[in-house]
Amino acid sequence: MKCDVLTLFPDILTAYLNESILKRAREKNLLDVKIYNIRDFASGPHRSVDDYPFGGGAGMVFKPEPIFRAMDFLREDGETRKVILLSPQGRPFNQKIAETYSREKQRFVFICGRYEGIDERVKTLVDDEVSIGDYVLTGGELAALVIIDAVTRLIPGALGDKRSVEDESFSWGLLDYPHYTRPREFRGLKVPQVLISGNHKEIWHWRRKEALRKTMRIRPDLIEKVVLSDLDKKILSEIEEE
Ligand code: ADE
User: Fold this and answer.
1) pLDDT digits (tens, 9 = 90+) for 194-226
2) 155, 149, 63, 78: which is closest to 111 by C-alpha?
3) Separation of CA 118 and ligand 1 centre (Å)
C-alpha cells in the first residue's frame, strides 16, 4: 500500500506507524506512507487553517485553500491517486473495503478532517468518503490509522509466515474463536480439554463451534451475511439444542 496522509497532527500518525507490524511493513517496503502537515500549505502570517462558518453556528470549519494547495503539491509528481476523506459522514469501513484497498495499485491520499467540519468544496477533490464507525472523533487521524493498519495486515508478507491462509479463511465473516496459552490452569481457570487433546479434527470442530456460538450471541447480523456450510448448519443446531 502506498499512501500520503494530510493532517494537522503528524506526530499522532508517526507514533503508531513506527511500531510493530506497520513499522516492519514499512521497512520491507510493503507499506509506503508519507505524512504531510496541512499547516505547511496554509498562507498568511498565522498560517490559519480554519475559519468561521458561513451562515453562523458553533465551531470552526476547515478552510479549503490549504488542502487544495497540498493536493496541488502532491500531484506535481504526475502520479494518480485515490483520495479518501475521513469523516463520520462517510461510507462505513469494513473488512471488504480493506481487501479492495489492499489490492489497489494507485497511491492513496488520506485527508484527516478536524473541527466541526470541512469546507464542502474539498469534496470535489475526493474519490471516497469513509467513516470508521458511528461515533464522532476529534479528527480523522485515528481513522486513517485504522484503515492503514487493517489494509497492511492483508498485504502478503506483512504478518510474516505465521498466519496461514487456512487460518484467515477459517474465521472469515465470523467472530474469532477463543484462544489459550500456557499455563493449562491459571487461578483455577482451566484450558478446555479438547485443545490439549492433540486431535486436530476435534480442535477444528470446537473452534468453529465457539466462533459460531460467539457470533450468534454478539453479532447475529453477521450470521445472516456469511455463507454457512452444511456442517456449520449442523453445528448451529447443536448449539441451539444445548
Ligand atoms: N472523523 C471524526 N469521526 C470520524 C469517524 N467516525 N470516522 C472517520 N473519520 C472521522
Assistant:
1) 999 999 999 999 999 999 999 999 999 999 999
2) 63
3) 12
Is 92 a pocket residue for ligand 1 (Cβ < 6 Å)? no
131 lines ligand 1 (CB under 6 A): yes
Instruction: With beta carbons less than 8 A apart as the criterion, state whether 172 and 212 touch.
Output: no
Residue 186 Cα, ligand 1 centroid: separation in angstroms? 40
59-84 tens-digit pLDDT: 999 999 999 999 999 999 999 999 99
Burial call 19-55: b when 16+ CB within 10 Å, e when fewer: eeebebbbeeebbebebbbbbebbeeeeeebbeeeee
Burial zone of 87 (CB within 10 Å; 0-12 exposed, 13-18 middle, 19+ buried):
buried
Q: What is the pTM of this model?
A: 0.95
Cβ of 54 less than 6 Å from ligand 1? no
The Cβ of residue 182 has, within 10 Å, a number of other Cβ atoms equal to 7
Nearest CA residue ID for atom 10, ligand 1: 87
Tell me the one-letter amino acid at 172: W
